[in-house]
């Protein structure tokens, strides 16, 4: 990693481990799941919570409300010292929420505390203010060690929402880039080990740091494990599976609330063998992940998939360590990966090995290439993934809700270039990371 990136990692980590500060932004084009509005302003307090929003008005009342909100948080609205940020028409969105990503900047979230710092910085500077850290299939003791590391990191910074276990309870036939030697059936004893590592205590009503776990429901103990995890406050996900329609339905009825990267690592749509996708699409309880990179899912299928379940499609990256890095040789756990033209494949068999996508690019593609409405594109990267875990309301993990630019929500904010939608300034819970 270059010296510049080392400096960025140090700065981002210090900001996220530091205290929130009041933020005041005016003159923005706000885009969130509730719609678009020009001349928008937002003010947040020293807790990192939005206390006021509004827009410019012809009678000047909007300006008066902005100035009042500034004063309530100790900001002088007339200050020329940079306390008040003039967005000058730039796009204001909620911070992006990625619920399925493995790393960036040559590090993965399995690489210990320092690896987490590096990979999180790599996504934070591209507008991903909150992230569920995806851990790959490994021997069980390694998985549990990595779960404990995430649990410890959560205690020191607000941007880490917990972990997603993508394995080891996957179908061998649909394993993708996961190590087949480490795949297992989710017997209750293994589930208990994972929950114990996460700090969960179901009997006491205490949830741990595991937010999500991908499970193939057709495994012998698959449905039982989904019930066991769901009872402990985890949101199981159906994925990396070869399940038929009825088995997928049973998984969702047992408590699975997510489909892991729809179309990828699962049996596809067939007119006489519907498979798991229709089961997810028709169930309003299910959030459906989609990798919008044009490679994992080509553009016609992205458009089709996005239209199948309005307001329930969550853009995810499935990003690996090579994200935002040059082409070359990388690792996915113990497996060798080649990245060519930004596309990662296993050396051993050519299987796709995660992506090099950021949510910044996923939203850019949706708006500028695929013609999605800005509101729908932003919703898929903000409110929808937050809602999958109940983070769109007051909750025990984030406290303050995520996913909208609105009073009472976290001051997770992106200011984007209005032409190409590149993140220029980024705040997480009132902490400026870019």
Automatic annotation (TrEMBL):
Q: Which InterPro entries match?
A: Amidohydro-rel (IPR006680), GlcNAc_6-P_deAcase (IPR003764), Metal-dep_hydrolase_composite (IPR011059), Metal_Hydrolase (IPR032466)
> What GO molecular function terms would the record report?
metal ion binding; N-acetylglucosamine-6-phosphate deacetylase activity
The cross-references to Gene3D superfamilies, in alphabetical order and at most eight, read: Metal-dependent hydrolases, Urease, subunit C, domain 1
Keyword list (alphabetical) reads: Carbohydrate metabolism, Hydrolase, Metal-binding
Q: Where along the chain is the active site annotated? A: 318 (proton donor/acceptor)
Establish whether keyword NAD is in the entry: no
Q: What's the cofactor?
A: a divalent metal cation
**Binding of Zn(2+), residues:** 166, 240, 261
Q: How is the cofactor bound?
A: Binds 1 divalent metal cation per subunit.
Q: Where does substrate bind?
A: 177, 264-265, 272, 296, 352-354
Residue ranges occupied by any Amidohydrolase-related domain in the UniProt entry: 91-426
Q: Which GO terms describe its biological process?
A: N-acetylglucosamine catabolic process
**PANTHER family hit by this protein:** N-ACETYLGLUCOSAMINE-6-PHOSPHATE DEACETYLASE
Similarity comment: Belongs to the metallo-dependent hydrolases superfamily. NagA family.
Q: What is this protein called?
A: N-acetylglucosamine-6-phosphate deacetylase
